Amino acid sequence: MRLVGENIENPGVYTREEALNMAHKAELDLVEISPSADPPVCKVIDYQKFLYQQKKKQKEIKANTTKVVVKEIRFGPHTDEHDYNFKLKHAQNFLQDGSKVKAYVFFKGRTIVYKEDGEILLLRLAQDLEEYGRVEQLPRLEGKRMIIILAPKAVKKKN
Q1: What are phi and psi of 102, to 5 degrees?
Q2: Model confidence over 59-83: pLDDT tens digits?
Q3: Which strand (E) or helix (H) includes residue 147?
Q4: What is the CATH number assigned to the segment(s) 2-62?
Q5: In Å, how far are 79, 101, 116, 157 from 139, measured between CA atoms?
């Protein structure tokens, strides 16, 4: 087997017994890295330390990933101007904080007749939020809801 590692004075090809003796003398472990190579490649390392470092790297990677937060904003098909502006400001804040915005028009009872009004309202919202976010999903009717999803353009973190 081919022996590699920082703890080896003479890296090279050794028998299994010689490699195990070298690892034993160094008070380390003999770990097979590439069994399919010819000859197989082994490394003399402290295996517990190796596992610890890998676990630490995984934890670091997990900590650096950001979780996607989706905020919902609900409209009716006949939302007044003041209510629309109030919800628009909230949507701006959500997008600036880096959250996605799921805006929907809920059609109650016979208001489903006004599907076009709901679509116009959502497209207007997307147009008003153009500088803060981009449309990820165009308005789509799902049951009694018409949904649009907006994603933030650039995340600005608050300190």
Answers
A1: -110, 105
A2: 988 887 777 788 999 998 888 999 9
A3: strand 145-152
A4: 3.10.20.80
A5: 17, 13, 11, 29
